[in-house]
């Protein structure tokens, strides 16, 4: 297995979208609730709009020409805090490795590449929501759980 990790471009959007869809379908506990076609189109449009301006970027893992994994970071400005005076924030919004490539170092290499790139852009922190399976990888890399966060979801308007 000779997996190449590279920064994705707009020509990789279909592969990144397909892998991200697999992530959400694999871990969705209420799969029948979602309009997957609408979500897939929204995701593809988001990547197409935000890759060129750099507010979202991705790295992709390729085994020959086959996409076997991806990591996506979305960037935004938040209210400055003492810990983050610039307000620049990054979120690892999606990371997925095909099952046959898990536990083989592909995820760690992908995470190294995207985190190095994020740091080179001047971001001071990266947040994520981890699956149970992903927590082991993120902890090994150095992510720490954050206590005290809460979420509220509005129902459809």
From TrEMBL:
N-acetyltransferase domain: from which residue to which, for each copy?
Answer: 3-157
Annotated Pfam families: Acetyltransf_1
Keywords, alphabetical: Acyltransferase, Transferase
Q: Which GO terms describe its molecular function?
A: acyltransferase activity, transferring groups other than amino-acyl groups
- Keyword flag tRNA processing: no
List the Gene3D superfamilies.
3.40.630.30
UniProt keyword annotation of GTP-binding present: no
Task: State what protein this is by name.
Answer: N-acetyltransferase domain-containing protein
User: Which organism does this sequence originate in?
Assistant: Formimonas warabiya
């Amino acid at each position: 297995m000779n997996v190449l990790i590279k920064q994705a471009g707009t020509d990789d959007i279909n592969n990144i979208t397909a892998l991200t869809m697999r992530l959400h379908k694999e871990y969705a506990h209420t799969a029948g609730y979602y309009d997957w076609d609408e979500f897939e189109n929204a995701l593809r449009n988001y990547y197409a709009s935000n890759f060129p301006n750099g507010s979202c970027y991705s790295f992709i893992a390729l085994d020959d020409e086959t996409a076997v994994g991806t990591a996506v970071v979305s960037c935004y400005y938040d209210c400055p805090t003492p810990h983050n005076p610039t307000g620049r924030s990054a979120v690892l919004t999606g990371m997925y490795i095909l099952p046959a490539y898990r536990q083989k170092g592909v995820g760690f290499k992908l995470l190294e590449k995207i985190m190095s790139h994020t740091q080179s852009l001047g971001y001071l922190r990266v947040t994520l929501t981890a699956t149970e399976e992903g927590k082991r990888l993120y902890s090994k890399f150095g992510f720490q759980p954050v206590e005290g966060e809460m979420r509220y979801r509005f129902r459809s308007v």
